[in-house]
Design goal:
Helices cover 58% and strands 6% of the residues. With 513 residues, it is an alpha/beta fold. The chain has two domains: 352 residues, no CATH class; 103 residues. This is ArnT family glycosyltransferase.
């Protein structure tokens, strides 16, 4: 008796759901083991917590008095939503990036059907086992989310380019506008580099007709609604913000050394070359060997291959922008590992995985990448905000309502661990720092229990300024390179813990031994 027609479909659906569960588990395992590190992870979680606590999801804030416009809010929204759903934990902070990594792997499966039809799963396997995308998913930043939207742009463009009906083409154009809008809400103009590569390929292939096929007013409208509505609201409320985005976040990053991020002429080679080479392990040697074997006639094959030209645009156009821009960080090239993975898969397919030894090596490699997420938790790292928070909590009860870092970069991750608001203060006679308050003004405000953290080279200047303003303080034990001074306010009763501060210690004096 023949099987019911629905049985194969059910089995296929079951396999698909099982594969999705495995991908999500691979992306999410051990994401909550490592503590948050400053500066980036602390800053992103701090802004997300500010949105969650204040209820104002439109304005990113480092402190109730300090706005932070360096990035669009989609990453902050995703972290805040994760906290609201799963609680305030390191796992919840990293969950958006982990799910973005999982989503990127799934999209690579989709792209594999077009680029590597003999083994459509191979690009996803390569991308999932690359060093750099896996490690980047363990960082609380915008980059894994951006990589997802850029891969989505190319995946939708490929479907648009091969659409069989006008209805399918229109649907793909709308999805292309959606993906571009989400990328723009994640990191602004850099999120459109994949789309620019698609347009370059379309023009290269069919000139004006190719651009006409790709562009649509309906897709532009979707992009403007998704990617531009927040910018429009903010520009209407605070007109100066739009200029900040254009000047500080675009012009200065591209054309100046203001960000101090490897702007030297050799900076691109110093940052991107090792990132691309080491980050594409363990597959890079196999790719180079395959390219060497097939070097004869490679240029002719490339000229005749539309897919190879699209991959070239996807890889080289953004890379050229990153090289020319004078702000350079390794994570900028994370989206480029997607076309690299497809190039590897095309060069190696068909890859024989029937060997038990080869399967074992791949499994062990992926397990090592997962375990690498937990390894830093056992290391004593200066940027570890959890250790600093424990050192502070061991000396003070209750924990500070506010921790102010004087003449040094704030450790925003302390808000996640202690619940304290975090800000930076400038000493009265020092040049003003962006996004910082002046100490003279701040000490006059009653903001609950305040702890001042300062590096040793500025401690005496801080103590003199506090004496001038008639502010009393307790000196605590130093913690991880910071001198800690607890202000004595009328509405804050610090309680001695027997760890450095005693009831008999005179204000302003070092703690009793």
């Amino acid at each position: 008796m023949p099987s019911p027609p629905s049985l194969p479909v059910s089995r296929a659906a079951w396999r698909s759901w099982l594969l999705l569960a495995c991908v999500i588990a691979y992306a999410c395992l051990l994401q909550g083991v490592r503590p948050l590190y400053s500066p980036d992870e602390g800053r992103y979680t701090n802004v997300a917590l500010g949105m969650l606590d204040s209820g104002d999801w439109m304005r990113p804030m480092l402190h109730p008095e300090v706005e932070h416009w360096s990035k669009p809010p989609l990453t902050y929204w995703s972290i805040a939503a994760s906290f609201a759903t799963f609680g305030r934990s390191e796992f919840a902070a990293r969950l958006p990036g982990a799910l973005a990594f999982a989503g990127a792997i799934v999209l690579m499966l989709r792209l594999g059907r077009r680029f590597v039809p003999r083994q459509p799963w191979l690009p996803a396997l390569v991308y999932a086992s690359f060093v750099f995308p896996s490690l980047a998913a363990n960082l609380v930043t915008t980059d894994s989310l951006l990589a997802l939207w850029e891969i989505a742009q190319v995946a939708v463009f490929v479907e648009l380019w091969h659409a069989a009906t006008p209805q399918a083409a229109r649907r793909a154009r709308l999805l292309l506008g959606l993906a571009a809008g989400l990328a723009f809400m994640t990191k602004g103009p850099p999120g459109l580099l994949a789309l620019a590569a698609c347009f370059a390929f379309a023009f290269w292939s069919e000139r004006g007709r190719g651009l006409y096929r790709t562009f649509g007013w309906d897709a532009l409208l979707v992009f403007l609604l998704v990617g531009g509505a927040w910018y429009a609201v903010i520009a209407w409320r605070e007109p100066g913000v739009l200029r900040y985005f254009v000047v500080e976040e675009v012009v200065n990053r591209v054309a100046s050394d203001k960000m101090h991020r490897n702007a030297e002429w050799y900076g691109a080679f110093k940052v991107y070359l090792p990132t691309l080479l080491l980050g594409s392990l363990p597959w890079l040697p196999l790719l180079l060997a395959a390219a060497w074997k097939s070097r004869r006639g490679a240029l002719a094959r490339w000229r005749a291959d539309d897919q190879a030209r699209l991959l070239t645009c996807w890889l080289l156009l953004p890379l050229a922008v990153f090289v020319l821009a004078r702000s350079r960080l390794p994570l900028y090239v994370l989206p480029l590992f997607a076309p690299l993975a497809i190039l590897v898969a095309r060069a190696l397919a068909p890859l024989d995985l029937h060997s038990r030894g080869r399967l074992t090596l791949i499994a062990l490699w992926c397990a090592a990448l997962v375990l690498a997420r937990a390894l830093p938790a056992r290391l004593d790292v200066d940027e570890d905000d959890r250790r600093l928070a424990r050192d502070i909590a061991a000396q003070l009860s209750p924990v500070p309502d506010e921790i102010a870092f004087v003449e040094t970069a704030p450790r925003f991750g302390l808000r996640f661990y202690l619940g304290s608001t975090i800000e930076r203060l400038d000493l009265p006679d020092e040049p003003p720092t962006p996004q910082a308050e002046n100490l003279s003004t701040e000490v006059l405000e009653q903001e609950g229990c305040r702890l001042l953290a300062v590096r040793e080279d500025a401690r005496e200047a801080l103590e003199r300024a506090l004496t001038v303003h008639e502010v009393e303080w307790w000196r605590l034990r130093d913690a991880r390179g910071y001198a800690l001074l607890a202000e004595i306010e009328g509405d804050c009763a610090w309680k001695a813990q027997g760890t450095g501060m005693t009831e008999n210690t005179p204000p302003g004096a070092p703690p009793a031994p």
